[in-house]
## 1
Amino acid sequence: MPNTNKSTLLIVDDTPENLTHLGNLLAPSYRVKVANSGARALSIVHQSEHKPDLILLDILMPDMDGYAVLEQLKEHSDTHDIPVIFVTSLEDCHDEALGLSLGAADYVTKPVKPAILLSRIQNQLELTRARKLLDNQNSWLEKELGQRLLQIEQIRELTLVALESIAEVRDKHTPHHSLRTQAYVKLLCEQLVINGVYIDELTTDRIENITKAAPLYALEKPNISHEVIFKQGQFTAEDINILKTYPILGAQALWQAVQPDADYSQYNFLNIAIDIAKHHQEKWDGSGFPQGLQGKQIPLHARIMALADIVDDFIKQEKYPAELSLEDLLALIQANRGVHFDPAIVDAFFASVDKIISASKNY
């Protein structure tokens, strides 16, 4: 019964005696196929369901020499990786260098010394098996890594939802505020890109991270007294001082989600969420808090949230009288262009205001 574990070798030589000699030498250990020309060799390789494991290739052949055969093998993805050993009477080192530069695995000169040829063949077959094993392991590792990354992403999504829910449960006066502001932030980001503004910062991945991180900015509210957050009427100076602490508290709460010795800059969405929590109360003219940053010193995502937050406060009358109209909101935002808000973000708001109002009605 034939040994199905034997490797298959293809011998290519235009001299029948050479084919016979090499065939007799290799047949005890391998399945052997032969071709008496380059064209015939290519036909055998491309038409075979199971490609040869290795090719022994003569160089000096009529019509198509060994170099041309090798070049064609290397051009096709299904034959590119078949190891080729040149077996030739050419002994010049330049011929050997050319063959190896074209992709030959090895070079053996005639007359063939059986022990040397068998050793070279065995070495190449073992290298090929090792490469295939490594490729299989790499494929498995890539698949496993992909599954782990997917699990991490799912855990992240669940964590975000849980954190957002905490903020929503605490903030019963404005249900779904975080979801609405998240929608506004995404619309503003997309409109800025349409307007050709901040396009280097607002890549597709960046917009996705900003959108996912946006709802977390409200996590600072659990650290502030309900009586202060939802106070009706005029704030006292003490109330204002308390309110000015909540951006810092929110940023600290988010930072604590990462191990103290970790480089949180590698967590893109969390880094963005920290910036939004800390800086969304800053103003373009520098009159905001907690640091009094001005203009583009304020992170872009925080500048976007600054407008989105005010829009939702106005639409849901959290801090504004119910009798104020949409026209009053538009006038307020226009009046604060270059004062409270980044002028480019105000322009994006007016270009997408219909979408933003529609999004507010979804929650």
Note: The first strand starts at residue 8 and ends at 12.
## 2
Amino acid sequence: MSKSTFASAVGIVGNALLFVIKIIVGVLFNSIALISDAFNSFTDILASTVVYISIRVARKSADETHPFGHHRAEPIASLVVAIFAGIVGFEIIRASAFRLIAGGEFIKGILPMLILIITIVIKLLLYIYTMSVWRKAKSTALYAQAIDHRNDILVSGSALLGVVGAYLGYPYLDSVAGLVIGIWIIGAGFRIAKDNMKYLMGATAPKEITDKITKKAMTVKEVKRINEIRAHYVGTLLQIEIHISVDRNLTIYRAHTIGKKCQKMIEAMPEVDYCFVHIDPIIKARPH
């Protein structure tokens, strides 16, 4: 098991444990904020499971049915995470608004506060660990999971404020916290979806990456200039088409060797999956 899949598996176990604890305590104390946070954890279980599966699929090599690999699996998983977030966020807002209008008795107790404090600590540890793995793996699905852990810290913090407020004699704050949590979850889902749509829509590469590609190609001595670069995402990685100019008097073999050298250098970049090098003849040499 890779570090990425292990990190996603840890997320599944951690979220499942938190969901069970929070839903039980939330029902016992009739806390809409804690119950809302519990359903947020339930969403995280589904999301973590999707991330786990997507990372395993994305690691598969190219085959006859997927000649360019399975890299789209991770942004698809991130989009599923965003959809889950939107659905749960809407349901939490609906339940909190009903509770705020209709009212309801909050049963005072220290336990809901302790559970939320423990949740914040666990989520902080999961966030730190998942981000440390992401910095090495650069998995978009794992990054979405890490951001989800970070968001959960803020969500549980809002729930804690609501529970503390209700404990101090302001029960409406419990419902208000539920509304805040619901809105936050929807917003987080929207941001995740927006960030991953470019991978699914074949968006062009950022300018800083194309500039880096240009510099790498120009380090090859025989390359006189770069005529054109096309770079677009296929999943989380880039496919590159680059047109280089070389002396027209070179032999076909030499020009081919130069093209292969450029290709290997560009494909060694972590952002790149495949590079196609087109060779153009030129008479004028590169200025020094």
Note: The two ends are 51 Å apart (CA to CA).
## 3
Amino acid sequence: MNPGAPAFADLHLHLGRTGDGRPVKVTASGAMDLSRVLETARGIKGLDLVAVVDAAAPGVRRDIDFLVDRGEMAPLAGGGYLTSGGLGFIPAVEVEVGAGSGGSAHLILYLPDRTSLEAVSRWLAVRVANPHLSTQRVRSDPAELAAVAAAEGGFAVVAHLFTPYKGLLGRPGAPSPAALAGDSYLPAVELGLSADSELADRLPELASLSFLSNSDAHSLGTVAREYMALELEELSLHELRLALDGPGGSQGRRIRANYGLDPRLGKYHRTWCQHCARTAGESPPILECPLCGNPEPVVGVLDRVMERSGSAPVRPPAGRPPYVHQVPLADLPGIGPATRRVLLEAFGTEMAVLHRAEEADLAGVVGEDRANLIARARRGELCIRPGGGGHYGRVVKNPCRPA
């Protein structure tokens, strides 16, 4: 790590296959094996710290063993590993668990080493249908999972908190993270692609928690579509835990900033009616279709939060880092694969293009129009048509027109 420089972190990456070609996360790209994910994260995206959330699968554990035994990844005293290319790696496990009122939610367990990973894998093996696949339904509850992670030297967080179907607060009447955790501590919640800190801070029950912005990448191209800038002294699990100790962190470690999609780009931001194939444009909350009266549309994250919070003002707690809206290069119209290759050849990584390159330098490489587009994306000046019902929002050409 460079002293004083933030560590860019994406702590929710999936693998589609093991190194020998066996399936892991069935909805993830087959191109995503451990080696290629690590190479992409460091060499193309410019990340400093990642977590792969399928690490309990026996085939992935073998891939980790292979890299460690070959000297391509070395354990850190504070937990986690450092690759030969300087990338911090934390083994993690995403699971689905019952979460009150007949619903379910996803949790992520972050673990320090191969020994703890093997212990959690054994614990899961008798509680899931198929231990070789990722994100299995576990016969357990959030409090027990958090306690299991803590017993193995790790910790648990809630994944994509607000999204319908598998987000803890993605349905009406869902209990808060604190209520589900009981005496077991969940230090943070992952917001998901359709929410940001301002939206989440409408709920006072989340004031004591850190907010994570991660990609939940199922393809190499979506790695680092959301990420965080962290202030750490080492790329280890222990340092990460300190950074997540409340909204402002602990002992000088903290989240400096969250970088994520404008929530309107997320695929569940607004309510969507399956019958009308329409994303709501009316003022939230929209809980039934205003056109056809459908009482069970896919309720959007914005609408669900507004239903839960009412007209309560946004009151972020002290220490809450800024949330910077950002559009990935791949989502910018006119920035296609050929242009991205030219940018990477000139500036090295996507982090360099998004954070460090001056607009004049960008213009010298890809022309003034594309450089201006990237700069406007940085400043949050692009026109976006909101997503909903599993359909991503998109950047559209100005002038903006109502959906």
Note: Residues 7-264 form a domain with the TIM Barrel fold (CATH 3.20.20.140).
